[in-house]
TrEMBL record:
It comes from the Bacteria. It is found in: Membrane. The chain crosses the membrane at residues 33-51, 58-80, 86-108, 115-133, 139-156, 168-190, 196-226, 238-257, 263-280. This is O-acetylserine/cysteine export protein EamA. Signal peptide: none annotated. The keyword Nuclease does not apply.
Length: 296
């Protein structure tokens, strides 16, 4: 990989990792569903008036917008709001790699290798360890929401593949149009007008910075950069770099929100990181009928 592309990859993963503790800061002031709704509203507007709609059917845009905005990021924000450490959130969302492998096996008759099965077993062990030290029912529910969000991300990957979209940046912008109304409606249904009325008072500098970072850095720039790399290089060369996301996420969480994992949690984190690294290595197929790409 060229040096400039490696720098881009590190920058993208660093911004994605940093997004988790910054999100936690924003959630200290604003409802998670409202924050997510505002994020995707700003992701779409006013950019849909300047970016040409991608050449895919509307149902693919709607499906991805609902999965990406409502089923993925709303659940990530709810999980963090329920007490899941931001660093752990950045790690658990990486389970989407294994869910994506499973979808490839089930839907596209791709095959799983022995190393990928070992990776799944290691990841499951690390996850059970994290759940075992969860401080309470609320945080455990938050952890489960993070896993559902990882599943949602994997479904989003399947939608990208099935839609055969080429204009990824435009696709994200136009798909974001479908997320705000369901998110804001859910916030109103659960909390009434209180969250909206309090927004003016809660929208301090921290919330504004968090929101702008999520829109322009974590969504617009990072999704452009990541998909640019996927276009220029084989998936097998780019996908393993996603392992840097939880590294930056855990490190920045320790610095920004003072969330330092315990010794047992470090062991579980190491198991999951090892699982992701092992699962992306090639190996002999043991399940399925054709090779499966180690994609994230």
């Amino acid at each position: 990989m060229h040096r400039k592309h490696m720098i881009l990859a590190v920058l993208v993963t660093a911004l994605w990792g940093l997004n988790f503790p910054l999100t936690k800061l924003g959630l200290a002031h604003i409802d998670p569903l409202l924050l997510t709704g505002l994020r995707f509203a700003l992701c779409a507007l006013p950019w849909v008036f300047f970016v040409t709609r991608p050449k895919v059917a509307v149902h693919w845009l709607a499906a991805y917008g609902l999965i990406f905005g409502v089923a993925m990021w709303a659940l990530i924000n709810l999980g963090i709001a329920m007490g899941v450490p931001a660093g752990s959130a950045s790690l658990l969302i990486q389970f989407s790699a294994f869910f994506t492998l499973a979808w490839g096996c089930l839907l596209f008759r791709e095959r799983l290798t022995g190393t990928q099965l070992v990776g799944i077993a290691l990841a499951a062990t690390g996850l059970v360890g994290i759940l075992a030290v969860s401080p309470g029912k609320t945080t455990t529910t938050g952890l489960l929401l993070l896993l559902i969000s990882a599943l949602a991300w994997s479904i989003g990957n399947v939608i990208i593949k099935l839609s055969k979209v080429k204009e990824i940046f435009a696709f994200v912008i136009w798909a974001s149009l479908f997320a705000p109304i369901p998110l804001l409606s859910l916030a109103w249904w659960l909390h009434g007008t209180a969250a909206f009325v309090a927004l003016a008072a809660q929208a301090n500098a921290v919330v504004v910075f968090c929101l702008l970072f999520q829109v322009y850095a974590a969504t617009h720039f990072c999704y452009w950069g990541w998909n640019y790399l996927l276009r220029e290089y084989p998936v097998s060369r780019v996908a393993p770099l996603s392992l840097l996301i939880p590294v930056f996420g855990i490190a920045s969480s320790a610095l920004i929100v003072d969330e330092v994992p315990s010794g047992w949690e470090w062991l579980c984190i190491a198991l999951i990181l090892s699982a992701l690294a092992v699962g992306m290595k090639p190996g002999r197929a043991v399940l399925g009928s054709k090779p499966v790409a180690a994609v994230h």
